[in-house]
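Forum: Protein Structure Q&A
Topic: Joint prediction for protein chains with partners

I've read a bunch of threads here and the consensus seems to be that you should model interacting components together rather than docking separate models afterwards. I'd like to see that in practice. Below is the full input, 956 residues plus whatever partners are listed. Could one of the regulars post the assembled result?
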Amino acid sequence: MKDLIDEALKVAPETKCSIQGNRVKILAPVESVIKIGELVKRYGFDHIESVCGTDYPADNTIEVLYFVGSVREELKSKVVILGSRIPRGEPIFPTLTNIWPGAYFHEREEYEMLGIRFEGHPQLARLLLPDDWDDIPPLRKDFHVKKWGAAEREDAGLKIERAVLHHPPPECIPSADDFKKVRNPSFLERFQQAFDVPEYDTLGRQLFDWVQKDERTIAISFGIQHPGSGHMRLVLGVDGDTVTEVEPDIGYVHRGKEKMCEYKNYFQNIPQLERPTIHDSTGMIFPYVLAAEEILDIADKVPERAKYLRIIMAEFNRILNHTYWLGIMGIFTGHSTMFMWAMGDREIIIDAAQRLGGARVTFAYLVPGGVRNDAPEGWEDYVLKACDKFEKRLDRYREIYFENPLFLDRTVGVGVLSRQDAIDLGIVGPALRASGVYSDTRKDEPYSLYDTIDFDVPVMMDGDSYARCMVSYMEMYQSLRIIRQAVKMMKPGPVRYHFRGRVRGKVGEAYARTEAARGSISFYIVSDGKEKPYRVKINTPSFRNLLAGVKKILPGHRIADVPVIHWSLNYWAVDADR
Amino acid sequence: MVEALKIIKAMQSGLRHLFYSRVTRRYPEVDSGLPEGYYSFDPKKGVATAGWKGRHYLEMDKCTGCQLCSFMCDEISNAIIMVEVPEVRFEQNKKSLFPSVDYGRCVFCGLCVDACPFECLHMTPEIRLADYDRKKLYYSPLELSIQPAVGKPSYVVGKRKERVEG
Amino acid sequence: MQSKIDARAIEAIIQSRKEGPQPTGVLVGKVDEVIKPKSLLRRTFDYIIGEPLTYLVNWGRLYSLWPTHVETACCSVEIGASAGSRWDIERFGVLEAFGSLRQCDLMLVMGTVTRKLAPRLKLIWDQMPEPKFCIAMGACAISGGLYEQSYNVLQGVDKIIPVDVYIPGCPPPAPAVIDAIVKLQEKIRCMDLKGRVASEAYLRLSPKWRFR
Ligand code: SF4
Ligand code: SF4
Ligand code: SF4
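Posted by a regular:
Agreed with the consensus. Here's the joint model:
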């Protein structure tokens, strides 16, 4: 890594570089960012992970950071953080989509959330916010959230007498105007007045224009009320029955989590951060907890038993996610039996997990410092039995589904994603492994005692829908294998580091990544030494897979194949929207 | 031909399920099978006991009105509001301040239980909270202090019992 | 000690509820309009034809609650689980039919309604034929829940759509969903031919009934 830094310093001498474990941070001046970017790519960092902007009103700058990983064996565990500071008043940054095409949607998001203009970006349009957004970009520090709770209770007619209420900070108290907005949402009125008001669905209109390249092409809307669309809309340009162009329109479940994180402390953030993918709640929260531990300076105080319990919970969630996904895949391929089987067998694992976590899916089980409760007595035996039972059921799937000619016809050779495309677009998880890339964060950068456990990473070479399904299916066997080992390796002991007094983070930043069910997920936390984080960047696998993958794969396929292909990417739009 | 055989094989493996025992749990008639223990937190050790996170159960004779649960929930979903209950007076709670929970907002995370330093807030396996009226989702401290019909507490008031498994 | 508190608590609750039942927010039509005294002829007619017919129609409504397939947010995971073989809400006639919304009569609002989605949801609701029912599922749909501070979340779906049953939870576990559907069916049993709620007998299924 030293030579990379030396070369970067040669390009621009005023570059600031620092190495922190596996993270290399390069802060370059804006003019030389492109040159250093090319350098980093030539060095072997070709897998874009995330783009993150942070607003610093104190020094009147915005920091833009690109997180770049690699799929090469020797660089897998490293992440290069390349970025620059730009003035807040005129935030212009050169686009790096030419170097890493996968940055396309990440840049669009930061454009919208912080108002950074990426010069040279092919289509800089809005992505997540509603059409009638007329405020400043929400992730700027001078945008404040409002606490609506009181207004909501009043509207519901809930009169709570003699209540003692806490007073939110003054900037979070809604004004009379704000209350009015909540009571009679203006966007509803505007919507109902007429459909021909051109402001309505501005983004949709833009997308329609983009996909409608010529006379022959018709633009159609796939979603939001469509069985195969999920929580999003795909704007398809079709020529006859063939898809020519796709523009995903997400943001229907955008809930502003990154902004809300800045108003909650490290523990209060846990429930909301596991909600993006509730059937993979532990996978979502795992990197957050690791990053928060680094910020709170207790990374080495987590007890060993807690680490194993975390692994078990994470693998339970991987199975829960894959079975849910498999069930819906059954519906999309016209195989209702698969749906019923997968949903029914999922309950075996839920039964084991709810005895530990106390909920069906949203366990809120991992906290900074360990886990919340120890396993009840006799739970270990129960888990081993449940694993055996589930594995027997899993074998059955092969006959009825994975070797069924009806399923093979729908998926084999459909939606091929080549190895090079998958790397360029920053695809992660089962979709990347199905394209022949051996990449799994559990192996690349082992965290939380995953290195003591023996397991395999299934990889397929074909890159079609069938390969993606098979990889997920094989992963469930590996998860069972991990759970069995972890249960046997667990020794009695404490499960949680006991905090005393107020919990404050140290000044600094942390970037942690783990392997969630849908792929590699990472959290970037900036702390300014207060009880609450300064900035939290959530980088979810669905955001990386769905948008880039769908845009690349779908053109050339029939409309009937659309649900199968985009669901085989193992996406979850809620996760992409955050 | 091979294809047809495979389809027949798939159908056969499905048909075998005619002779299997039923997976469906006839829920309203039979028990839902959720774990039975309460979720409670031991502030001295800093760990909780495993249990289902459902409706809260408040031990009014232990609550001191310290508001810590309310402060924890304030930024999570603002479900806990401290209210004064003049009908009930206890030594340790001079102002008669008790937490009330608005289940229209609560997300059943149980972090309020972790925040309580006097072990008086628990979560029970009661999940049948659905109602016709938004207002009825608000549970006053007195309503919270009634134990639901389902589940067993992991602790008894006053002296500690061993964990009860679900 | 334990039993003492409980007795006192119940007493206090009874005290505070002396004003009688509070009107429900979702009642269609006025109560006194519904309970107007009728003529003898009309009563005889009702007894012979009206009531059996109402029963038959309501029986039809009860077991054909087809939900529209609009997934608003993550609560749809639990709908998937409750449509699966362990809980199987098809036993109650809730069939995930994936049909057109023109044939549906139940809107299950599965979680968060954002500002971007709210107009579309309202549009879908307006297109559904009468009688139609709405279940608000999860803290988000009821009140905004976790996203009290969010700039993009509608604070409760009842601001745009009248809601029949609220299910607390995040997400509500599958048994709670079944419980809510049973409660909705009880409400449908109390409807007249025109789809108005004719009696408040359904309220006894409310979990707070036993506190009275
Ligand atoms: S469980 Fe969570 S949301 Fe519910 S009252 Fe407690 S802290 Fe608040
Ligand atoms: S329940 Fe516990 S935390 Fe809440 S006010 Fe009472 S004693 Fe304090
Ligand atoms: S209530 Fe919870 S699970 Fe349901 S949509 Fe809201 S955050 Fe998701």
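The pocket of iron/sulfur cluster (ligand 2) is lined by residues B 63-69, 99, 115-116, 118, 120-121 (CB under 6 Å).
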